[in-house]
Structures are given as C-alpha cells and as structure tokens.
C-alpha cells in the first residue's frame, strides 16, 4: 500500500502579492484555474493504491486545504496532521511516518510530495512513482530525481551512482551550485534535480531517523505520544513539537543514509518558484506578452500581466512582470522576479498587512472580503457555504448591519432566531449575542456594515464554535 | 478693471488613469494637495482688480468647480458660463466677452487663463499680467509668451517682433516645430512658447472676432441672445451653441490680427502635459525615484510612483511611471509617457468605464464611491455635504439599505421623514419615494447597499431636485 504524504506549508514569498502568509503558494490558482493544492491531491490519488492521503500542514491552512481537497478529489479519504509551527521536513515526515505505521503498519509506503509543485506529464510521473515504490518496498530510501532541462543554480542536485533494477543508487546530494558548476552538472548527465519527492516505507524512514538524527526521532516519538493521534485532524501537541529540532529530511537522513536510491524522471516538473516560472505557463502573443485578466498593452513586449478586478495598462515597457491584487501591485523586471522576496522582507519588517492577508480571508464557514476599511466603518462581503455556521459571538465596540444579497440566511440575535431572504436586513447592536448560519443548498452572501469605534478582528468573544475556535 | 476668464475643460488624456472624462485635469491634485483649478483661481484673483472671476466650463464640471473655488477663494465672486458641448476656445472666449461687456462694459479687460496649467513664480506672473493689461488697455490683443527653457516640440511658438513700451509686437504664430526647428527657435532667443494666456478688452476681442471670423461672431451673438445671460450660472443655449463653428482663438483671431503683442515671461510655467511633467514636481531620492503614496522600491531607479490606497512594489526596474488608482493601474516607460493617450483611445473604443469615471463620482450634493459593483449587489459610500440634498427619487429595480456611519442624516421615505444617527439604518424598497438630506454642519457618511436585479445609474426617477436635474 502507498499513501501520499503531502507537505503543505511555506509562504512562497517570491510569489507575493498573490502568495501571502495567510494564503500561501498551494492556494494560488494557476492558468488552468486550479490551485496547486488541488492539482497535487488529484495527482497523488492517481498513483496511490488505497485512496487515502495524509497532509501535513499548519492549523491556519487546514479548513481551506480540506475544502479544496473535497472539491478536487471527493472520492479520497483525506487525513491531516496539523503542525503548530513549522519545523522543516524531517519532523513533519517523522510524524507522518508514525501516523502511517500506526494506521497501516510499518511496511506501508509513503510518497512524500510538496503541495506546491507543478507536474505536466502525469504518465511519466506515475511510471517513476511505480519504480520508486518498487525500490521502497525493498527497503530503499528513494527520491524522484528530475532530469535537468537546463543548468539551474536554484536547486540542489543528486549525483547518480550505480544502476539498480528500478533506478540508480545515490552517490551524493550536492548543494545549489554556482553557474559554472551547474553547467558542468548539466552537461555530465550524472546529476538530477532534487525536487523534494521521496518514497520509503514508514518503518524504513523511522529507522533511519533513529539512526541518523536520534534527537529528532526521540522528539517526534514524544510529540506522537502527547498528541491525540486518532483524532481527525491530528493536532500535533504544540509544546513537544516546538522542542523538536528543525531540519530537512535531506540533511537529516538522505545525505547520510546507506540504502538510498533515485528514480530519474522527466515529467514537466516545475517548482513554480517565481513569477517568471508562472508566466511561462501562459502562451505569449507575437510580441511575447502574456496576459491574465484585463490589460491594455501599448507598444510593450515580453511583459506578463496578471490582474484581478482592475485594468492594467502598460505603455512602451519591456520585460516586466506586473501583478495586481486587491490591495497591492507588483512591477518587477522579469529577470529579477526572484528578488520579490526582498519586498516581502521589507513589508514584514514594517508589519504591513499585505505581507500576510489578502482582502479575501478564508474561514471554516466560507470567506469574507473587506470592501472598505476606514476610520468610521468597515464593510465586508461574507460568503457562508451551505452548512456553514459562524461562531455564536458578540462584539464590544461595534454594531453590525447585515443585508442579505443572495441565499437564505438563518440569523440568531440574543434569543431570537429568524430567516432573512435576499433584500432583507437586520442589525446587531454592540454587546448583542449573534450567530449566522446557512441551512440552505446555496451560498449565502451578506454585506456587513460595521459601525462603532473599533473594527479589529480581535473584538470578538466566541461563545460557541463548531470549528473549535472558542 | 481686469476679469480673469478661466477656460476649464478638456480631458487631459495623457494623465489617465487619474484624469478622466468625468474628472479631468483641472480637478487633479498635485504634490501640494491642491487641484489645478484651485491654484488657478487663486492665482487669477491675485492679479484681478475686482475680485470677480468668470469661468467657462462644461455643465458636468460646474458643481465641482464651484465647490473648489468656494474653498480655495471664498472671498471671490465667481461666475460661470456653461458650455453644452466643447467648441474650442474662440466661441468660449467670444461668449465670455459678451458677458464681460454686458456686465462691466467693453473697456473691461479679460485675462484668459487655462484652468489646468501650473505657475510657480507668482510675482513674475503678476508682473507680466500687469504689462499685458497696460497693452490691452491701449487696444492690443496681448499674449503672455513663455520664455523657453529648452527646445520643446510639444508647443506652438510666437515669434517676437519690434519692442513696445510693455512688451513686443508679435511677428508670427508658428505651429509645433520638429526637433531641429525647435532647437533653432530656442537658440535664436526670438521665440516664445504660446501657453494659451491672453489679455484684451471685451470690446477689442469682440471686434476682432467680427472682423476675422464673422460667422463665429454672428453665431456667438445668437447664442448670447438665446441664453438667459443674467442667470447664475449662464447656460449657453445648446442648439445655437452647437451651430457655432469650433475654432481656436489662436487660429481664428491671433494669427490674423494687426495690433497684437506679446509679453515675455519666465514664471516657472508648466502645462502639466504628461506624467513625466508631474513627476518633476517631486523631489527625487539618491536613485532618482519619486514616490507619492505607499511604495516599496527594491533596486529600482528613476521611477515615479503615484499611488492612492494600495501598496505599489517595484523590483529591479528603471525609468518607469507607475500610477495606481481605485480601478486601474498604469505602468509606462517615462520617455513614453505622452503615449498614455493611446490607452485612453483603446478604452474609449471598447467603451471601458475607466476612460470616463472614477470609483469616486462627484455630485452637486457631495460624492459617492463605489465599494462593490457585482451581479448581486452594489455597495457605495455616500458623502453628503452640509446643506446637501439628494433628489426626491425612486428606483424600479433595486432596494436600498442605508447605514449612517457619521453625521446626522435626514431621511424621507414616502411620506415619513426622520433622522438617523451614526449606527442607525433604514431600508427603502424598490418603488418607494425617498430623499436624503444633510441639515447638519458636518458631512454625512452613509453606506448604501443596493439589492435587486439591476444597479445601473439610469434606474432613477427624479421627482424634485434642487440642482435642476429632474
């Protein structure tokens, strides 16, 4: 049996302003309209034997990831381990191995996949996974090694060694090279890119962790004992998890292990590491321009525009990336797209909200979009999914005015409960207990106007919450 | 007596996306926070003797212009001629001359000024106006001629002739030159820029119109007879005005006239004709970057950013103009800033709203800003000035929900009239007669949520309107 273990985290700062801390790269929608998370779960379940997946992600990403999976792969059985904080891949994979061993036995194979990569050739990928699983079932710690298409300096490399029945032994893992070394690697034909995809049995990786990083092995065992490991999702116990040393599985295990193998694969892989990489997913016009959204380009060339609701106009420019979102716009030289990270660093330094949140924020019950955030009021569009229930709550400093624009909303204010249809409105005074629910089959859309003296998200007292947020 | 005659119109398409048809260049706020219209009226009244101004503008611009004037020059007596359509400067100046002659006599001097130019040296300007007035009072048709600061190809030139007591005779008006000719003009010292500023008596310009363009002269006389010329504002009668041939005062009169003079002036003049010109009003940093609004620039140079509410980030770019507004963003090469016009042409061709309106739209009673414009609802912030009264109106296809966020609103719905304080709300069903008034001393801010099936501005039936819009 093979269970995909999807590692989903990381902010993807080079893809700001679309990728942000509260809405990282796996949630970005690409040219095909799909999120990377959706594409990953579909790809994973195609090669998994049992329809079971395990995803290791942060608490904040759980509900949205689960919802995307349910939509993208409703037939799958999706399990989650929630990390209270990021500790790199070794602890995440260790915890996942515990889960797999406990539920399916130590011989069960784990296929570790990052949630935010793109693979275009599914057949080649499936073939490589099949070979990797063969090796893993014989006890090899196995990587997928991506056949380089150019002399890339941005990835680590794997030097291949002696051939095996279904792949090659790994001679060495090597760090990101300089340009000259990358060229040599590329031309030699002996090196493969390390794309962070692994296959091994739960027992084998747990044994390897114990052998090569005993402190992490002991730490993860403690986390596992301290966590309610049969819960769904499993919330990894915060105190013990925070005590585990952060390390990558590459450095902790793969670089030191004895029985390690690589399966070379050419599967149209991309780590979608920059806007340059995203722009290449679009067809260019005769002048090399690529546009998603609404744009007017006057005498401009080799320019990529990704817009949302606003119009983007360019005049006489060349070789730019222009990315427009609700609250921020990025203009970057295409060749310098990697350096977008520096913008995010600066925004974090100044605690600018656009490093973290979008105007649209996902919640377990749906989402809200901020339409106006001013001194005297805040206006939001709330979208409550069928079955969605906002917590029973009250605010000290603001009143709320709800106008239903579509769907049928069930509203409770203090002890009164009633339904509101499109065009109907109600108001909730500061201090009044209230709750909003959607008992219907369609999304409920509400315009919420907040009035009062303070509109921070922290002015909320939750008395009941079906999502455990009290 | 000298009366400033301010010509205010024109879309300023090279300054899109800030300048738009419904919000043209005179209403743009520059680095000093002032609109060009405000600066112009203040400058004009400083050199005028009687505190009286006359502005010729379009109907759509009247209320906003009047409000800006009242704020910028509350001591002035501001009169308006409203053109139903633009017919270039000769008919506008002709109508203004009728008004000045009828009210103050034919000897009264007119100082014609465009509403959307910038002058930095007020003393030099005042000195030149004084000389021009001297000449005008002796019957000369006088221009201010701007001493060139470089070989500009974008302006018409005036070739100076024999000296007069307070200026120079005009030898010729010449068209915009090519680069080589402009260089020759500049080096000769005999040429001045034509900035569209004139001084003459009402009687002299009417006589000149009669002599050189009798058809326009007759046409304007008919317009004047057909219009209620003592009204305030004077609305030029549409049918007769439309029949007047459009022509510039330069071509119609100045190029042909006999007694014509020019007063050279160096007054830090700019016609603010492009984003390049606007960027030069800001101090650059060590890398030549100029920023208005919130921006993060990473390794970028010679770049001008003008933002509003959103963050603009630039990475590794050089020599760009980036202008961000509520619904459109422009990225242009600085050298190509003149070509922004091509974007507007394209937007007009496709009837894109961003060629015409901003998210904030000015109305006689205040303004509104569209916060959300969707299939299922439209959300606006209404700002009603003290004394402002929206028309008594009703809508067929939408209900409106008003939540007061600041100020005290007086609301009428059908035959009920009541007050709403901040935090209070009401709703108006489709078909219900309603009106909103501000009887207080502070602006009233209201969030309006429209629900229903259609949210176009044309679904409005006005029964009474104090601004004459029924």
TrEMBL record, chains A, B:
Q: Which InterPro entries match?
A: GMPP_N (IPR049577), Man1P_GuaTrfase/Man6P_Isoase (IPR006375), Man6P_isomerase-2_C (IPR001538), ManC/GMP-like_b-helix (IPR054566), Mannose-6P_isomerase_type2 (IPR051161), NTP_transferase_dom (IPR005835), Nucleotide-diphossugar_trans (IPR029044), RmlC-like_jellyroll (IPR014710)
Reaction(s) the record says it catalyses: alpha-D-mannose 1-phosphate + GTP + H(+) = GDP-alpha-D-mannose + diphosphate
Q: Report which superkingdom the organism of origin falls in.
A: Bacteria
UniProt KW Nucleotidyltransferase keyword: yes
| Claim: Cell membrane is one of the keywords in the record | no
* Family membership noted in the UniProt record: Belongs to the mannose-6-phosphate isomerase type 2 family.
Which keywords accompany this UniProt record?
Answer: GTP-binding, Isomerase, Nucleotide-binding, Nucleotidyltransferase, Transferase
Q: Which residues form the Mannose-6-phosphate isomerase type II C-terminal domain?
A: 353-465
A Gene Ontology molecular function term of the record: mannose-1-phosphate guanylyltransferase (GTP) activity
Every copy of the Nucleotidyl transferase domain together lies at 4-281
EC numbers listed for it are 2.7.7.13
Residue spans crossing the bilayer = none
Task: Give the EC class as a word.
Answer: transferase
Q: Which GO terms describe its biological process?
A: GDP-mannose biosynthetic process; polysaccharide biosynthetic process
Species name for this entry? Wenzhouxiangella limi
Q: Which pathway is this protein engaged in?
A: Nucleotide-sugar biosynthesis; GDP-alpha-D-mannose biosynthesis; GDP-alpha-D-mannose from alpha-D-mannose 1-phosphate (GTP route): step 1/1
- What name does the UniProt record give this protein? mannose-1-phosphate guanylyltransferase
- Signal sequence range: none
